Amino acid sequence: MRSWDVLIEFLRRNKIYYFSVILFFLLLFIVFAYIPFAQRKETYKQYILSELRSATGLDIDVDSSDLSIFPFPGIDLENVYIRNDNILLAVCNRIELDISWVGLLSGNIELRSVQIDGGSLRLQRKIDGTIDLIEFIKNRENNSQSEKISKIEISPEEFSTGLDVQAKDFFRIGLKNVEISNFTLWYTEESHKREYKVYFHKSKASISFYEDSLDLLFHGKIDEQPIRFESTASILDFPIKYEKIRFSAVLNVEDLSLSLLRDVFSFFPLADFSQTKFSGRIAMDKEEDSPIHFKVRSQTRNLCYKGGNPFGNVKTDVDFDLDLFGKRINFPYIEASWEGVAKVSAKGNVNWKNRTIGQFTIRSDYGDYHSILKISKLFKYESPKTKYVARTISGPPSLPGVFYFNVDLNNIYAFKHRFSSIRGDAKYIHPVLTVPSFHAYIYNGEIVGKAKIFPLQPKMEVEGEAFRLHIDKAILPYVKERIITGDLYSKFYLETMIKDRSRDTVAELLLNMKSRGTIEVLNGELLGYANFMIPVLNTLGKIISFSGIDGRQVQFSKLTSEYSIYGNRFRFTKLELNGSGLEVDARGSFGFDNTIDMILNLRLGGQVVGKALKIPILYKGTFGKTIPYIDPIWLGSVFAGSTLLAPYLIPLGGPYGGGVAGSVIGEYVRDLWEGVKGLFGGSEEEIKKQNRK
C-alpha cells in the first residue's frame, strides 16, 4: 500500500497524474475494443448492414463497402440502391455512415451521421394525385440504362395536421447529422406539365448533442437557380409545441429567375416571368411565445408582358409579424420604390379570426399611376383549368374580406396631369375599391369628390367638383401652346376603363373615357390659336371699323359651358363667353387626337357698323394647323344681298351704292372660293374635305 501511495505522489509531483489516467483508459479501449473490432472487421461490416436494414426497414443493396474505425466507427457504401418492398427509392454514388462507439459496444446500432455524395432521384406527380418514383440506374452487367417505375398512392388523409411530435419518433435511430452533396432530385408535376430539378451542392441537417436544437443548411440550385438557405431551431420541450419553438432562418438568392415559380404564375395569362430576376434576403426568427418576425429586402427586375419588352426595377423592403394562432399579420414597415416612377411607404395589419379585415396607411413621395397600373395588369388572375382539383375544407362560405386604406399621396402623375397631393380614405370589398371622399390639390386649385375603382377590370368612376384651377395648365397636356387663361370651376362625372390591354395605357383610358358636366372660367383671356378675332379682323377689318376692339387679345369676364366626353372627343353643347364688348355662343367638339370641329357666333356691341352683327367663325381640321375662318356661306349671303353695307350706301345712289358693296365683299368671297389658304388657312380642296366630314 505504501508503494502505491509513493507512485501516486510521484505522478502528481511530475504533473502526469491525469495524463496517466487517460493513457490507462486508452490502453483498455485499444485492448478490449479496437483490436477485436479490427480483427473482425468484415463480420462487423455485415452486422452493421444487417442492423441498418433492420432499423430502417429498407432493403439496402451495395456494390462495395468499407469499414472505418478511427476516430469513430463507420461504414462507406459505394453505389447504393435503396428499396422498400421492391419499390426503388433512390440510387446514390456514395453513402458514409458514422456509428457511436457506445452503441456499437452495447450491441445496438446508433447512427451518428450520414453523408451522401452523388446520386439522383426522380419523382413524378400524376394528375390523379399519385406519385411515380422513376429512377434511371446503371445496369451492373452491361452498363446500359434501364428504367424502374413504381407507383405509390399518396392520400392527404394519411397525414396528420397536428403539431405535436414525439422525441422517440424523430430520433429513433439516434441520427444527429445528415449531409448531402452533389445529389440531384427531379420532380415532375404532370397537372401543369412542369419539371423541377433540385441540385444539392452542400446541404446539411444536424441536431445538437442534447437534442434541443436543429440546424439546416441548403446550398444548391433549383432549376439552375442558385439558392442558399440557413436555419437554426431550438426545441425546448417534448412533445414539440408551436408556442415554445425558437428558431431563425435566412434565405439568400441572387438573380433568381421567377420562371422557378411558373406553376403559380401560370394563372396570370398576360405576364411572362421567364425573364424576371429576383435578388434579395429573407430573414425570419421566432422567440418563445411570440409571432414569427420576417424581414424582406428584395429587388425585382425585368417584368414583362407576353410578347413585350422587359421593364421595371422595383426594390421592396418589408417587415411583418405573422401570428398563426392569433390569425393576424402586422406590417410595421413597408417601402417600395421604382426609381423615377414611384416611391411608396405603408404600414398596417390584417387579421382573419372571423372575417378578413385589413387596415393600411399609405404614403407616397411620388408616383406614376399609369406605370403602377402597368404592373398591376401583369397579375390579372385566371383560374386554373385542370382536371386535378385540390382538396378543400368543408364549411360555410366566409364573407368577403374588407380592407380599409388611408392615403396621403404626393406628386402623383395620372391622365397626363401631375397632382401635388391626393388625400382620402378608401374601402375595398371584392371587386370594388370605394373612395367615399378624396381631396386633391393641382394647378393652384382643388378637386374634391368620390370614386369607385374596379382594379381587376380595370375601371374607374369619379364624381366631383373643381375649384380655382389654372385652366392653361389643366389643358396644356392636350395642346401644344397656351390658348386660354383664367380660373376654372367645374362639376363633373367621369368614367373610363381599359378594354385592350395591349394598347398604351393613357391612350386606352382616354379612348374609353365618358364624362359629362359643366365648366366655368372666370377672368381669363383667349390667346394664340383660340383668338377668334384674328380671322374677323383679317377678313372684315378693311370693310368695317371695329373701334374699341383690340384684336391682339380677347379678354373675358366669364366663360361657361356644358360638356360631354365620349368617342375620344370633348364636346361643347352650349358654350357662352362675355366680356370686353363681345358676346359669343359656340358649339362643337375637340378630339384627343387634336382634331377640331367648332362654330362660334360672334356678336359685337359698342360703336360698330350696324345695330346687330352676328359673325359665324369656323374651326375645322387639325388644331393649331388649319387657320380659323369666317363661314363662307355667311359671306356669300352678304355679297348676294348687300346685307351689311347697302343700307348705308343708298344715299350715294342706288346702283352705285350696291356696286360698291358688291365689289368690296365680292372680292373677298371670290378669294375664299378660289383659294382661301392665304386668307383663312386652307385650300379649296381642303375645305371640301372638311365640309364632307
Automatic annotation (TrEMBL):
GO BP, sorted A to Z: regulation of protein targeting to membrane
Pfam families: AsmA (PF05170)
Entries under InterPro entries matching the protein: AsmA (IPR007844), AsmA-related (IPR052894)
Highest taxon of source: Bacteria
UniProt KW Metal-binding keyword: no
Ion transport listed as a keyword: no
Ranges where the AsmA domain occurs: 15-199
Key words of the record: Membrane, Transmembrane, Transmembrane helix
Cellular component aspect of the GO annotation: plasma membrane
Membrane-spanning segments: 16-37
PANTHER family according to UniProt: DUF748 DOMAIN-CONTAINING PROTEIN (PTHR30441:SF8)
Name of the protein this chain belongs to: AsmA family protein
Naturally occurring in which organism (per UniProt): Leptospira perolatii
